[in-house]
């Protein structure tokens, strides 16, 4: 996936496909600031997944939004955000309900009673 708005400088080699997920309940700003002649900054909403290309030596800064400011809350090397290509068996019908990037279950089960509609019995 190419960065259409902010292409990497032509002298950059070793670009990788990366993914960052905002697992917080706050808006974050993701920035890569250590690559000369390249500007990368994106807003990442709570629960949003950001997929991007970056040089492998890039350092992503995560700024977490507060009321009228943002605090640098993390710095992550881009080599820790590299997406692995999903294997062919992750696309079969047996893998529905899984996330091919993290391979963790997308839906979580909880201990709730089956839903019944007035006059209809639930099927268990």
Question: Would you mind describing this structure in some detail?
Answer:
InterPro entries: DUF1830. The chain has 124 residues and is mainly β. It contains no helices and six strands. It has strands spanning 15-21, 28-32, 40-44, 49-55, 59-65, 70-77. The chain is globular and about 40 Å long.
Shape: globular
Through-space gap between termini: 44 Å
| Multimerization state | single chain
Please list the strands of the largest sheet in the order they lie side by side: 3-2-5-6
> What's the mean pLDDT score?
73
Q: Strand percentage, roughly? A: 25-35%
Give, in order, the helices and strands: EEEEEE
- Low-pLDDT residue spans: 102-124
SS element count, helices: 0
Summary of the model, kept short:
The chain has strands at 15-21, 28-32, 40-44, 49-55, 59-65, 70-77. It is mainly beta and 124 residues long.
Quick tags:
single chain, 124 residues, mainly beta, 0% helix, globular, disordered C terminus
Secondary-structure topology with pairs:
Blueprint (H helix, E strand, L loop, with lengths): L14 E7 L6 E5 L7 E5 L4 E7 L3 E7 L4 E8 L47
Antiparallel strand pairs: 1-4, 2-3, 2-5, 5-6
